[in-house]
């Protein structure tokens, strides 16, 4: 039934879609038809068999940062670009990197158990038995030898510790075990450390990506009991990149911090395990049965703890400076060589990484090859194309961050846009980024055909949104919407240094949603797994090449760059409405909670023998003054509209357009905060940042929003004024762009 509804929606949307209009922003008059003609030729150059071969080649061996495989993959990519006419080189930078020397996790008496901490080779997976695989570990864990009782902390988020406190459970001096999910993994040991835990274990519960979701590997795509998610636990919400060179590139002669000076490194040991190793640990727990929503998918009753036996966790690491092999390939622009359209994907992996990141890297390389074929046919990029293969993304955006920091001044002048991709799979188009590019992304998605349904990836996405909308109001909103709903960027891939540190307009694009599995960061992220379960025909690799290739070609050759700051103004206005509502909701809930506490009406624990500590009364929420922010938004609405009208002036000369274009692509830099966000000055964008306690997840108007969430009212008011000033500066800048040329 659901499939038939989706199909009817697809037919309806195809018949009624605004996608029949073939106007392209930045290509006036007949130039749009010429651009579309080149794009048709571009599509014909793309071949899924090429993507198949690229994935198989690059995922043939482990290639983590600093390994022989990493250098070999970088050289493979560099030579590939050189073969197709790009000025291609490997630019070497450096970073600290930790690899394990000793790993021990065991239960002591009265229960004896020693975790295997290993993923076995499978006969169905040709690369799962290779040497040089990084063992299962969390990069940037502290060295440590700790013993203590175990406490189950659900997903290990701040609210989970508040629940434990009400149950009378204190994690101080204990080792905690948390489920993967609901936040970036590095948040879990960070919060554990803040609450006094001496060690942290992160495990993959089968409810998240194991047998609860589907058949496990090798029968199906999902995680078997041995599979382990490696990964970084660098405190990236403080700053990404090399911990020893915050804010500047780690060159061969760079001055570095001492390791204990790095503010984004943990102080406690942390290790990841599969649910096979986790089950005996969880079975050792006593104490209260977990609250609603905490239990996972293992066949047992989940308890909070403490454990009946103590847990011994011993970890030690090599802390070495490793080379970062960034591949940078350029195709020089014929008219505007000092304006760069940058396209990137990382090439390093925790092990073989067929899905993450090789699938995205292969699509990028096929895209670049197809563009080189167009050049032979007479197509010329006006602006310089810069294709990048980043190293060290997995441990903490190391390669891209060091490159951006090292080249910051040049990028501030030349970078028009950064277009990122990462792992890719079968399913639906997804895009996030600078909201001034919302109409641009809409037009790109309108013009790319989904390989399964043969309608546009835009219409397929809209149909999916309609079938999953839960209210009539939501469906009406979707029907009325005329643009692709571009998401906001948090963190988690290589756009972060470009966007949130330098204010360079950025996009992150890819496909997924029908390629779920449990291979993430394990030895089973292999070519065999990818070909069976992720994108068997490699057709969504081609679709990514089409979407990213169009984006790159259009921005490169647009007459006037397709930035529409009216869309950004509307988006920021929505964020302002959200933070005002957040303050009101916080005030209302605080008033109600304080009244219930005063009256002693909070529900006690279900079992009267269990401890239960009711919440304490909180300070009442004051009223904050948002007038400066609202006034700056009103000014921005006028300046963005004025700029839009000015751009449409047919009398603009080529010199006017050149000046205007530079103003357009440097505009978002005006939204940067001089001192950055509180306690994490590396993040300078006033509108977008990863959440301090969400990691990958975005916080919009982050200074204001997080101050309210943390009930820091003075800081909240201060951040309102700083955001208002940034928006005012941005608005004044847009006005000056019109006045200078008008």
Characteristic terms for this protein:
alpha/beta, Transcription Elongation Factor S-II, Chain A, 16% strand, Aminopeptidase, disordered N terminus, 16 strands, 12-stranded mixed sheet, single chain, 742 residues, 3 domains, Glucose Oxidase, domain 1
Question: How would you characterize the overall build of this protein?
Answer:
The protein folds into three domains: 29-95 and 326-557, Zn peptidases (Aminopeptidase, 3-Layer(aba) Sandwich); 109-320, Glucose Oxidase, domain 1 (3-Layer(bba) Sandwich), CATH 3.50.30; 565-741, Transcription Elongation Factor S-II, Chain A (Up-down Bundle). Helix content is 40%, strand content 16%. The chain contains 23 helices and 16 strands. The radius of gyration is 26 Å and the shape is globular. The termini are far apart. The relative contact order is 0.14.
Give a quick account of the main beta sheet: strands, pairing sense, barrel closure: 12 strands, mixed
| Rg of Cα set | 26 Å
| Span between termini | 58 Å
**What is the CATH architecture descriptor of the largest domain?**
3-Layer(aba) Sandwich
Provide the structure class: alpha/beta
Low-pLDDT parts are 1-20
User: CATH topology of the largest domain, which one?
Assistant: Aminopeptidase
Tally of discrete structural domains: 3
User: What is the average of the pLDDT values?
Assistant: 94
Number of helices: 23
- β-strand percent reads 15-25%
CATH superfamily of the largest domain: Zn peptidases
Approximate shape:
globular
What level of helicity do the residues show?
40-55%
Instruction: Please identify the top-level CATH class of the largest domain.
Output: Alpha Beta
How many β strands by DSSP?
Answer: 16
